[in-house]
């Protein structure tokens, strides 16, 4: 089977119980989830969504159309739906994962939405994609974090990253919920404490978008808890996929 550039499978697991398609946040490439390949679970085949303009697709122009991205990812995923599957997306990736779920022939086993307000509600964030370069980058750096200071100091690298960041932010700002019917799968919504972009109180709104169960969880700190608290996020994912017993005393909001 010829693999699509939209989905990478660096570590194929022939006897995997489930495939997990992971969608990165704005400006990020599939390597953001590289450590998930070996750290998440031997029962999971982690498939990495790869978007234009980054890493192996650097020479391709990024797109500002989130619906187009979701359609292409869904098309690329269909040959891989021969076993149970789930979707995980962080920030912008959560919106993409949600839209992918609506473009597949049947619902995933589970949808994980991390660091994102519910797709049908306004985010409350002001638009920044149109700002001049310096102002736009300052907003990204101070408002969201996630990019190490060492990378900010590399101005050549930042200039290369800028078109992708700007396109991704524009895609999110232009996104409007199409009025989808509820999904039938369970949704797990998570964020980090102190994430101003998606406060814990906002997570419960994802329950409106499924007829299944919606579980919310606050894990670690900040918008990029997937980095600082990766092990705890992995435990939560394993729990929700039924690969381990529910954590004693786990917080469910």
TrEMBL record:
Pfam families (alphabetical): Thioesterase
Domain Thioesterase: 19-238
InterPro entries listed in its UniProt record: AB_hydrolase_fold (IPR029058), TEII (IPR012223), Thioesterase (IPR001031)
Family recorded in the similarity comment: Belongs to the thioesterase family.
PANTHER family, per database record: S-ACYL FATTY ACID SYNTHASE THIOESTERASE, MEDIUM CHAIN, THIOESTERASE
Name this protein carries in UniProt: Surfactin synthase thioesterase subunit
């Amino acid at each position: 089977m010829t693999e699509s550039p939209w989905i990478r499978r660096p570590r194929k697991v022939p006897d995997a119980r489930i495939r997990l398609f992971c969608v990165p946040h704005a400006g990020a490439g599939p390597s953001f989830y590289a450590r998930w390949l070996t750290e998440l679970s031997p029962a999971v085949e982690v498939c990495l969504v790869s978007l234009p303009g980054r890493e192996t697709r650097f020479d391709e122009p990024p797109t500002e159309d989130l619906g187009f991205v979701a359609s292409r990812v869904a098309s690329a995923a269909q040959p891989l739906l021969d076993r149970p599957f789930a979707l995980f997306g962080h920030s912008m990736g959560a919106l993409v994962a949600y839209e992918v779920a609506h473009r597949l022939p049947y619902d995933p086993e589970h949808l994980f939405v991390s660091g994102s307000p519910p797709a049908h509600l306004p985010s409350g964030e002001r638009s920044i994609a149109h700002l001049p370069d310096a102002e736009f980058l300052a907003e990204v750096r101070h408002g969201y974090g996630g990019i190490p200071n060492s990378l900010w100091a590399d101005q050549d690298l930042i200039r290369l990253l800028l078109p992708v960041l700007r396109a991704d932010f524009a895609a999110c700002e232009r996104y409007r919920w199409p009025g989808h019917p509820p999904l039938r799968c369970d949704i797990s919504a998570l964020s980090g404490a102190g994430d101003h972009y998606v406060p814990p109180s906002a997570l419960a709104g994802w329950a409106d978008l499924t007829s299944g169960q919606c579980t919310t969880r606050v894990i670690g700190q900040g918008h990029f808890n997937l980095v600082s608290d990766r092990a705890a996020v992995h435990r939560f994912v394993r729990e929700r996929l039924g690969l381990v017993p529910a954590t004693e005393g786990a917080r469910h909001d």
